[in-house]
Amino acid sequence: MDGLRKDAARNRARIVEAAGDLAARGEPLAFNTVARIAGVGVGTVYRHFTAIEELEEALVWERFDDLDRILRDTGPAELERVLTAHFTLLTEDALFEKVTERPEPALEQTVTKRTALIGRLSELMGRAREHGDLRADIDAQGVLLLVCGLAHAARSAGVAADSPEARILLRVAFDGLRVP
């Protein structure tokens, strides 16, 4: 991380790695547990992250970056592919969904990443509208709410992102986004 001493950067990386391991196992994040696993004092964790929400957000920045890369390399005819990828990330990563649905992110970098994601999706949707592939009465924020809701419902029901049930849910949503 820019501006950190080498030892501080190393500690931060260990903290993020430990928290990522806990999150991957579906265990709750707690600073004391993260500190113990990372081999640092809890004060060190607090120096890097003042609240658990900050740590959660740092853990999912890569997901935002993944979506950004997909959006950058996508044409208007591929909106379904983008939304399917987003649905999959949200379904497979409960922490990403939790951060995505958070009304007010804890970190400015999360705000920046989310704003960029919405902006790129808006651009893609605009191009899809120009091609006549997308209805005009929904914006990027609305589409993201729809995808988040579907992903939450699928995960809550134990429906895998790549299952026939998930494909049907997505198909109904995509059909609803098309020009009538």
Quick recap of the structure?
The protein is mostly helical and 180 residues long. It has helices at residues 6-24, 31-38, 42-48, 52-72, 79-92, 94-101, 108-130, 140-156, 164-177. The mean pLDDT is 92.
Could you describe the 3D structure shown?
By secondary structure, this protein is mostly helical. The chain has 2 domains: 1-50, Homeodomain-like (Arc Repressor Mutant, subunit A, Orthogonal Bundle), CATH 1.10.10; 57-177, Tetracycline Repressor, domain 2. The protein contains 9 helices and no strands. It has helices spanning 6-24, 31-38, 42-48, 52-72, 79-92, 94-101, 108-130, 140-156, 164-177. α5 crosses α8 and α8 runs antiparallel to α9. The longest helix has 23 residues, at 108-130. The chain starts with 5 loop residues before the first helix and ends with a helix.
